[in-house]
Amino acid sequence: MVNDFIKGIAAGLKSKGYPIYTEEMPTGFTRPCFTVRAEPVSEEPAIGGYLRHIQTFVVEYYGKKEETGKAGKNYTSGSIEPFIYDALRWVRASGRLYHAAKISSERKSQRTTGNISSNVEGVGGVLTVTAIYRRFVKASEKSELMERLYEV
Predict the structure, then answer these.
(1) What is the CATH number of the domain that holds 55?
(2) What is the C-alpha separation between 101 and 50, in angstroms, rounded?
(3) Which site among 57, 62, 123, 150 is 20 to 30 Å from 117 CA-CA?
């Protein structure tokens, strides 16, 4: 299910024509680009033998150096943030359409020295957008899913 969500998010971002990395970012990646990753699923009990799965996805946009303003704080490409929000608002996964319960964003500047990367003022801004999706799953489905995961 997580892979289907990632494919759905990537499909929404694809129209920009930028590279989308869903596993590892290669060394020397090209800017601008997107990364999509999933956070661990959390679950809460719900009524009627259901569980509420809460899945968080993180989309990061690495802009061109020209897109960042002084000290990497401002983005002249103001259209990218609403574009990402629109791509995350509705996501098709496993034949169903899911609506994001919450979408938030954070801008960071990144300076890299050797293998150490720090979120301080520097070169190349990073826009991080987080989307949370909730869905209900029968408790019996959960055990079948877990069994299939352990078989792999």
Answers:
(1) 3.30.2000.10
(2) 18
(3) 57
